[in-house]
Q: What sequence folds into this?
């Protein structure tokens, strides 16, 4: 019984939140890594593009809600998601045409692209705020819980409760579907293979008759879809506030770099690694330990770091990985 | 001719000294930020008192009072300092109702108000640190120190049989001050604090903070936070994960927004905020209703009193210069003298103009103690069936 209680406490406070957060980071990191692999720069505007896509999705969701449309137990935002993706795709394609294409034609150094993307970030930052404001928005509807704490306690008779929010389950399911679709696209379709070829060797790809502008466009559209899905899932699960999307840029980059920039498998692994370390390092293990070792009375909370230092964890991982394995765990590119 | 000119000049001077003027009173309140839902009520309260005094035409020979509002943001001390700077130097206010939150109030008081010799009367900054601050007699508050709120909260919890509790506080002067004051008096009464941890406002997700609180455990969670900010976020995460069922809410959390956010989910929780009962409060609520705002909104009554106290002190000192009238605030607020209720400011002004004494009671039963703050009456509230009910006063 005590072992079960320990397991439930672990699931409730560590595993489920970290898994959902990890999936959101993984989707974000996939977008970053894709852009890095094919366009060869770190896109700092990623977080704010996510916020833009989410803001559009929220506005459409509100419209649908006003019309009385709903998906029953699922959030209405899923219906609005394609519109959000389309709007984000249009925005990033326009940005590419207005900003990045110029530097691509010049064959500018990656650092110039990075700096240009910082500028784009600030513009998108302002655009999102003009669109929806700076305040927190909640747009989740439908069923809140799949497993409710009170019901769980009644069913099982355990003293620990377990909660599984529908948005957490949704995040995981959508992430699995999106990843599967992405890998299928990259490995099995002609366009996907063209993208990988372009990523591996630009000149050789050109010689084989691959249209570079088409590859670039495709990359932006896929990245826009990944951004918007990641942003909407994050907003549904937690809450939407433009500033927070700027902040998660840091763990997203940590995840992409830890996994190996340019490597999609690495991005997913990195996302979960960063999320689980953040949660596990700041979680006080005293309760779980109390169930497992009833005779042991630890003095403190068995917490490695205060929750204020959550963000620091991803940087520590980042530094360690860069010191000992600069190309990341899954052998990405390094420029 | 020379004599005539002189006489006219003298006359003009005399008229200038004794005649009517336009007195500007500043309001440095957090119209944006974590307590933005409370600021409009406070502004309406303060303006109600100013209008009452202007309409009476009894202050300093018929002077009118003009409110000037500024945004203190509640959390950004630099922005609040700039706001107060503007109110004093550009607008030329004679006193300021504010600041709203403790950290920003301390910063703007020390950096701007004290060097310029302007009085600030805060309706809502409750940090114990403000009791001992070096203020040259320029700072008062119509709300009690949180040292007292900590005691009251500990008392209520002891009576309900809650012997151990976890505390989460918003990471600023208000949060830390109240959390520490509460922890001290709760432990003194024999309670146990399992954990006393900070949370930062403006985060998307508080599951990590709640996980830490849950691991430490406790019969109740004391949420020393802001209802429009992290406080609600922590409660949300705690409810979702089933970490706590009973919450204790101090003043920053008690508000309509809490009911709107959580409804029946917080049944069985309770809290307290400074709010006096009695004749003065009833009267204020009526006046607020007539003026078209909700007088029960947190700190609205205290704001009315802050503005009223300033204007009455000016009448008592026969000057709108804050360096002069600051010495009269305590006299006006305390005995001896005729008791003045809200809506009776004209009567108070008349007595003061005649050289008499008044004891301003106002909407929140003002009784100032030693360092220019009120002794404090708290309203105990309980949450049941998705409603907030007033249990009693302490």
A:
């Amino acid at each position: 019984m005590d072992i079960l209680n320990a397991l439930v406490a672990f699931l409730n406070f560590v595993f489920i939140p970290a898994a959902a957060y990890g999936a959101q980071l993984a989707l974000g990191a996939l977008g970053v890594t894709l852009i890095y692999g094919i366009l060869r720069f770190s896109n700092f505007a990623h977080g704010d593009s996510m916020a833009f896509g989410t803001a559009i999705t929220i506005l459409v969701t509100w419209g649908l809600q006003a019309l009385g449309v709903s998906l029953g137990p699922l959030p209405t935002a899923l219906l609005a998601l394609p519109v959000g993706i389309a709007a984000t795709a249009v925005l990033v394609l326009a940005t590419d045409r207005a900003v990045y294409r110029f530097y691509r034609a010049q064959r500018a150094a990656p650092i110039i692209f990075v700096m240009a993307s910082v500028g784009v970030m600030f513009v998108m930052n302002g655009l999102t705020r003009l669109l929806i404001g700076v305040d927190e928005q909640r747009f989740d509807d439908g069923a809140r819980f799949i497993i409710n704490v009170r019901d769980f306690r009644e069913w099982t008779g355990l003293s620990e409760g377990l909660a599984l929010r529908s948005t957490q389950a949704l995040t995981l399911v959508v992430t699995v579907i999106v990843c599967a679709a992405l890998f299928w696209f990259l490995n099995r379709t002609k366009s996907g293979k063209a993208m990988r070829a372009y990523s591996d060797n630009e000149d050789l790809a050109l010689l084989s008759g691959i249209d570079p502008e088409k590859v670039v466009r495709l990359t932006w559209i896929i990245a826009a879809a990944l951004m918007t899905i990641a942003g909407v899932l994050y907003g549904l699960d937690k809450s939407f506030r433009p500033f927070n999307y700027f902040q998660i840029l840091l763990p997203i980059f940590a995840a992409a770099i830890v996994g190996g920039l340019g490597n999609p498998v690495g991005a997913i692994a990195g996302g979960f690694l960063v999320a689980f370390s953040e949660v596990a390092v700041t979680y006080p293990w005293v309760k779980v330990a109390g169930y497992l070792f009833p005779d042991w009375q630890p003095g403190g909370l068995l917490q490695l770091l205060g929750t204020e230092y959550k963000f620091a964890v991803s940087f520590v991982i980042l530094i360690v990985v860069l010191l000992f394995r600069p190309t990341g765990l899954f052998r990405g590119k390094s420029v | 001719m020379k004599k005539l000119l002189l006489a006219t000049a003298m006359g003009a001077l005399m008229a200038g000294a004794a005649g009517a003027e336009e007195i500007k009173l500043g309001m440095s309140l957090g119209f944006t930020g974590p307590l933005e839902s409370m600021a409009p009520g406070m502004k309406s309260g303060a303006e109600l008192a100013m209008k009452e005094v202007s309409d009476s035409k009894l202050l300093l020979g018929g002077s009118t009072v003009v409110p000037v509002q500024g945004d203190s943001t509640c959390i950004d001390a630099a922005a609040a300092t700039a706001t107060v700077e503007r109110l004093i130097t550009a607008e030329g206010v004679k006193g300021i109702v504010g600041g709203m939150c403790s950290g920003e109030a301390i910063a703007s008081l020390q950096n701007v108000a004290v060097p310029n010799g302007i009085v600030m009367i805060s309706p809502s900054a409750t940090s114990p640190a403000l009791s001992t601050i070096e203020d040259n007699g320029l700072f008062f508050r119509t709300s009690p120190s949180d040292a007292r709120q900590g005691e009251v909260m500990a008392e209520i919890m002891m009576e309900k049989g809650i012997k151990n509790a976890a505390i989460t506080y918003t990471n600023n002067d208000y949060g830390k001050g109240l959390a520490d004051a509460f922890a001290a008096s709760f432990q003194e009464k024999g309670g146990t604090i399992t954990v006393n941890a900070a949370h930062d406002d403006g985060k998307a997700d508080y599951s990590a903070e709640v996980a830490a609180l849950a691991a430490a455990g406790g019969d109740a969670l004391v949420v020393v936070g802001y209802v429009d900010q992290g406080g609600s976020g922590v409660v949300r995460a705690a409810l979702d994960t089933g970490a706590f069922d009973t919450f204790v809410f101090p003043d920053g959390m008690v508000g309509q927004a809490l009911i709107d956010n959580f409804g029946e989910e917080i049944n069985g929780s309770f809290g307290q905020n400074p709010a006096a009962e009695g004749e003065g409060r009833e009267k204020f609520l009526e006046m607020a209703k007539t003026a078209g705002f909700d007088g029960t909104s947190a700190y609205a009554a205290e704001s009315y009193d802050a503005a009223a106290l300033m204007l009455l002190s000016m009448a008592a000192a026969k000057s709108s210069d804050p360096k002069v009238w600051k010495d009269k605030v305590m006299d006006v607020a305390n005995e001896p003298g005729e008791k003045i209720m809200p809506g009776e400011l004209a009567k108070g002004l008349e007595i003061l103009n005649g050289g008499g004494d008044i004891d301003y009671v106002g909407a929140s039963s003002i009784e100032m103690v030693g360092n220019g703050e009120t002794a404090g009456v708290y309203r105990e509230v309980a949450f049941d069936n998705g409603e907030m009910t007033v249990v009693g006063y302490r």
Remarks:
- Residues 34 and 262 of chain A are 6 Å apart (CA to CA).
- Chain A touches chain B at residues 12-14, 17, 21, 145, 149-150, 152-153, 161, 163, 165, 234, 237-239, 241, 243-244, 248, 278-279, 282-288, 301, 303, 306-308, 310 (CB under 8 Å).
- The domain at 2-324 of chain A is CATH 1.10.3470 (ABC transporter involved in vitamin B12 uptake, BtuC).
- Chain A has one domain: 2-324.
